[in-house]
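Amino acid chain
________________
===
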Amino acid sequence: MATLSLSCFDLSSFSRSENRRRHLHRFWGQQKSEPSWALRRRNVVGVKSFRAFYGGASRFNDNKEKGLICTADELHYVSVPNSVWKLALWRYLPSLRAPSRNHPLLLLSGIGSNALGYDLSPESSFARYMSNHGYDTWILEVRGLGLSTDRGEMKYTEQIRSEALSKQPLVKASTYDSSVGSGISSRDGQTSNIATQLRQWNKNLINIIDGAQQLSPFQPFNLQGVTSALEEFQEQLDVYEKYDWDFDNYLEEDMPAAMEYIRNQSKPNDGKLLAIGHSMGGILLYAMISCCSSKKVDPQLASVVTLASSLDYRPSNSSLRLLLPLKDPAQNFNVPVIPIGPLLVIAHPLASRPPYVLAWLKGQISADDMLHPTLLEKLVMNGFGSVPAKVLVQLSSVFEEGGLRDRSGTFKYKDYLRQGNVPILALAGDQDLICPPEAVYETVKEIPRQLVSYKVLGKPGGPHYAHYDIVGSRLASSEVYPLITDFLNRHDTV
């Protein structure tokens, strides 16, 4: 195999001046001999960290190393002020062949989701699509998910990253780090009652899965991925004791830190960003617009696209109601996290193999024939982490009168949407069981009509769109992405 000499330039230090264009032209000339895929994927960052695992990832690694691969062009870290957290930002540099854009693009994932959903494979990558259309594209992994980490463990992570990179001679990786924020916390290493309870809960789950073997005697489960996810969950229990945040922490701390960092890197002339949010990511964008409207401040968003998102789920028969019974146990027993990733890994064999005890689970994610089984398995086994119970408790207010509230219960985020001035495109899936069109419209109708565009994807005779299909299904690049780029292009003005 030929060795590629791949160069990496930090384009963020160059404004949209003629000087930057000359630099890009010089850079392009240096790369002419390289295949086009090398230009799109110059940097691959490998990270091994118990703090940042993708549930069950080792199932796809024959050597059983629990490694992570960042497939973006650059991996950036931004510190959250007055917090121990460093947030991961996956950056996809704009194609040099595409028109120059005025604003960078921020992508926000759903609850418990890492960056993988936006970059599931080279053939199914929303992030790559947007960067190929000229957008400086960033995916934010909020605290506790994906490659985000706390600074108390960064030294360990950096050591492992260096070891991983030494095993990847064909690429040159670039990782960027901010120096904002302080306040590293320490722990005494003793095992708390919470961790003890979670360990017992974890053992019980393993026993349940062992018993599930008997459900399908003719096609026994391959438990390697399941047990691996549970073992990794077990290894992180002491860390989970620090999972003490809610939705408002994402909104008031993580998002502002990430947006400020992106502005400093991309330097848009008007200081604004474009943003796309899927599920909880869209809820965050709605909430930010509402909060800024109530305070009469500019949210610094040129336009927004929400995918399967709503602040008020009451008119719908959303399957999220199934999570409501978890609310009281989370409060009463002070369980710090809900392990969404490990639970999905456990449920996947029961959903995808005879006797299909949990066949309904697949429909929560993707409609029939919309996502290749291999990609669906990759998403389920690798795309989710654990979520603090406080986040779940606060989000459950979407089923209460007035919709989502802040942590105090006094501020209803939906109330100030009508005072916003940000153009919004809201997309819904016709077979979305998690956020049905009725829920999406319940929020859309609160937005001034001149600012909002609303569309339900899917046709009576098919194809149909479930919750994830809007982001990465086989038809998304031809039916969904063009709608989004057309909308963003119209509002990418200064």
The longest strand covers residues 85-92. The chain has a mean pLDDT of 76.
